[in-house]
Write a structure and sequence with these properties.
The structure holds two protein chains of two kinds. Chain A is an alpha+beta fold. In chain A, 28% of the residues lie in helices and 28% in strands. A five-stranded mixed beta barrel of chain A has the order 2-4-5-7-6. By secondary structure, chain B is of the alpha+beta class. Chain B starts with a helix and ends with a helix. The chains are: A alpha+beta, B alpha+beta.
Chain lengths: 153, 652
């Protein structure tokens, strides 16, 4: 035999290489998930322990009664999301989900600005009976949760 | 009567599956003295396919006539729906889609029983027994916990209707296509189990399995392409991929099937990668079942989660554990006894395909972890969602080297080659790739990922047609054409993704009738907003005149629709398509001052994403046809040779 690898050895080398890459991928994924997963906040959590400005997070709660205001451009809305303890001002530019009304539950995807206003890229409201943002389930553990649950029934 | 007949056909089919499993199992275990039992296996599989087909037709029938005494029809259909949505409603719900699953699975089993003659009979028996074993679990699921033919004690006065988001032509074809793919992979799984049981992992086995893998993979490719386009225009968010759990559920089997497709080619051509191919066969169908579990159980939130029932999730989870677990145990016991195949150098076609396989598996792992991570954290009461900031860069880390190797791999020879021999075409492709990168950077500020996308799409496009160079294109095997087209499709699709994410223009305005807005090269005038009505909805339609670079005005009318059964509002986007992209418009609410909210997009080359998907699917079809024709020719020659031998014996 010369320098060529024996079949058994070649298989071993291939398996080791493949395993190394796959384990590398898993470690990379685990690291990236810790950094890139977007965490879910309710307003009282966000008020007590705000996420870093610019970090992508989700904010869920009730759209406060009488808080929806449309700006002069006709497409930007400001409203308050509350959970009974705290409220967070939210700003959103775009077409509102069909079932977005005052007193309903909503999940806003976006980031908290330095001025304490949550800039939403996307609003998830209950848009049909089959789709409830999972974060809105089981919110009864929060003080305002009962209200949210009722609004989603 | 018809529903009862359908149910009876299902029970009979289940009984035949049990027979097929037992007879096949005994014939594998003790081939001598059980020839009679063995002769029952193929007919059992064929008749099973016929019976489930009849059951599915029965379901279509009750939906077409809106038989409201059937519970499933009453809760998912409505007499006022257009016929096509009545029919597609048959599989737009849990029970119906599981019946479709079982039907496709039985059809695939019947297909192998009738068509496949290349494998040793004992391996065939093991394969069919495995197919029946998997089938039995799903029959049990269907008959005991999701009977689609259940009657109501009192017929309902009217049906509850179908979710309006699902009342769309895309839906009529998207789920069945995906199911053909998902369930087609069950054949690969059964082949892998059959080959493990009889230790017959040979090139012949790979050649027998390849058309079935191709078949499933073509359907998965087309299903994902169609699903992406459906989400793009129906959900109205302007995006074409959301990394949503349900989308990932279809992507994961596709990744595994793509890897399997390439490794099975190595096994067929070169008798290498034996164990790995078997492993992928098991993994691919496992991913189909993981996907079904994610979609059907509702454990993960999804914009697509339409027909969910948490209690049924545990049944599918149990099936998943049973099948994947037993297959992995079998794999663990037998893998060591499969001897290693042929050797190859690192710089060879096989070496490049190993890179492809490892990279695809890594991406599969990344998507799987990202999809399941929210479930994992929820166990610790932490709620997270995982989106593009995770999936895009992390999967790109493995996608980029894979595509670089894709530029070289098809040019390499099997077994052993040198990079020097292919340096000219590879350098050519690299130059084109760098030119594309430079062009993208000159055109405007582009982010890192789209820039890499432009570069690789140009390089892959050039490299993918290189295998045609210097060859007589008329005499090239169809399978080679298939490879070229599919790889070109990857480049086209990648270009569409890069162009869409780099150059999309988005404008949000509140406009009065008569107002004009600009988005990219388009001029958009809102003519008026008028109510319109359909068979089961009313809507406000925004009539717009749009023109591209001052050209002729095109009329588009996005709608905000209200369905009345079930009561729900949806947004119907309107699009104007050109060869170089799409104008995409949505209408929102009317403000108190009489202005309408309009969302307008110009998406350059976005359609190329789906054209690329179609090219990939077309490439798969050419390869499949080419392989089948080659196989028929080979059989014909073998038959003639044996006939001639018989003649020679007679005349001797």
């Amino acid at each position: 035999m010369n320098t060529a690898l024996k079949p058994k050895h070649q298989r071993l080398v291939l398996v080791m290489l493949a395993l190394a890459v796959l384990i590398g991928a898993a470690l990379l994924a685990a690291w990236a998930l810790r950094n890139q997963a977007s965490f879910f906040y309710v307003p009282s959590d966000m008020a007590a322990d705000p996420p870093k400005p610019g970090q992508a997070v989700r904010l869920g709660g009730m759209v406060q009664e009488g808080s929806i205001e449309t700006e002069a451009d006709g497409v930007t809305v400001n409203f308050l999301v509350g959970d009974g303890d705290a409220t967070i001002p939210v700003r959103y530019s775009g077409i509102l989900p069909d079932l977005f009304v005052e007193g309903s539950g909503v999940v806003a995807e976006g980031r908290l600005g330095t001025d304490g206003t949550f800039a939403a890229d996307n609003l998830l409201a209950k848009h049909d009976e089959n789709y409830v943002p999972r974060e809105l389930e089981g919110m009864h553990r929060e003080q305002a949760g009962e209200l949210v649950a009722e609004s989603l029934q | 009567m018809i529903p009862e007949a359908g149910l009876a056909a299902l029970w009979l089919a289940a009984a035949l599956a049990a027979l097929q499993f037992l007879a096949g199992g005994i014939a594998v275990h003790r081939p001598q003295g059980n020839e009679l039992l063995a002769s029952l296996v193929r007919p059992a599989a064929a008749i099973q396919a016929l019976l489930t087909g009849l059951a599915f037709l029965a379901l279509l029938y009750v939906f077409s006539v809106t038989d409201l005494s059937v519970k499933l029809v009453a809760s998912n259909s409505h007499s006022a729906k257009p016929m096509i949505y009545k029919l597609s409603g048959a599989w737009g719900n849990h029970e119906g889609s599981m019946l479709l699953w079982v039907t496709v699975m039985a059809l695939a089993g019947g297909g192998i029983a009738l068509l496949e003659r290349r494998l040793p009979e004992r391996t065939m028996m093991a394969t069919l027994a495995a197919q029946a074993f998997v089938g039995l679990g799903f029959y049990a699921f269907l008959l005991f916990s999701s009977n689609p033919f259940e009657r109501l004690p009192q017929p309902a006065a009217e049906g509850m209707g179908l979710n309006p988001l699902l009342q769309d032509v895309g839906l009529a074809f998207h789920p069945p296509t995906l199911y053909f793919g998902y369930v087609g992979l069950s054949v690969a799984f059964s082949f892998a189990v059959g080959a493990l049981l009889t230790r017959q992992v040979t090139p012949d086995f790979a050649r027998a399995m390849r058309p079935w893998v191709l078949f499933a993979w073509i359907f998965l490719t087309l299903g994902i392409t169609a699903g992406s386009y459906w989400a793009y225009y129906e959900l109205g968010w302007g995006g074409w991929w959301f990394w949503d759990p349900v989308e990932n559920a279809s992507l994961m089997p596709w990744l595994a099937a793509t890897a399997l497709l390439h490794s099975v080619s190595v096994l067929a051509a070169r008798d290498a990668l034996r164990t790995w191919t078997i492993m992928l066969g098991v993994v691919a169908f496992s991913m189909s079942m993981v996907g079904t579990f994610l979609v059907r159980s509702g454990v993960l939130t999804s914009v697509h989660a339409f027909a969910v029932d948490p209690e049924r999730g545990s049944f599918i989870l149990a099936l998943l554990a049973l099948y994947v677990g037993s297959a992995l145990v079998l794999f663990g016991l037998r893998a060591g006894t499969i001897s290693e195949g042929e050797r190859f150098a690192i710089t060879s076609r096989e070496g490049a395909l190993v890179v492809n396989n490892v990279a695809l598996s890594a991406i599969l792992g990344i998507v799987l972890l990202g999809t399941l991570y929210p479930l994992l954290t929820e166990a610790f009461d932490v709620r997270v969602s995982v989106g593009p900031p995770y999936f895009n860069p992390v999967s790109a880390i493995f996608l980029v080297p894979m595509l670089v190797v894709l530029m070289v791999g098809p040019l390499l020879r099997w077994r052993k080659d040198s990079l020097g021999r292919v340096s000219k075409p590879v350098l050519g492709a690299l130059v084109v790739a760098l030119a594309a990168l430079a062009a993208a950077l000159i055109l405007g500020p582009v982010e890192v990922l789209p820039a890499i996308g432009f570069m690789l799409s140009a390089g892959v496009a050039v490299a993918s047609v290189m295998p045609l160079a210097g060859r007589n294109v008329l005499r090239l095997p169809l399978a080679t054409w298939g490879m070229v087209l599919a790889h070109l499709g990857v480049a086209v699709s990648l270009f569409g993704m890069a162009a869409d994410s780099a150059f999309t223009k988005e404008v949000l305005v509140a406009a009065r009738p008569g107002d004009t807005s600009e988005v990219g090269p388009w001029t958009v005038m809102l003519d008026d907003a008028r109510p319109v009505a359909g068979p089961n909805w009313t809507a406000m339609a925004g009539n717009m005149s749009v023109s591209y670079r001052g050209g002729d005005a095109i009329h588009v009318a996005p709608q905000a629709r209200n369905y009345w059964s079930p009561v729900q509002s949806t947004s119907e986007v309107a699009m104007a398509t050109r060869w170089n992209g799409q104008f995409y418009a949505m209408i929102g609410d009317e403000g108190e001052d009489g202005r309408w909210q309009l969302m307008l997009w110009w998406k350059p080359f976005v359609t190329w994403i789906w054209y690329g998907g179609l090219l990939i699917g077309l490439g798969g079809m050419l390869a499949l046809v080419g392989r089948v024709i080659a196989d028929l020719k080979r059989r014909d020659i073998q038959r003639r040779v044996s006939e001639r031998r018989d003649d020679a014996e007679v005349t001797a």
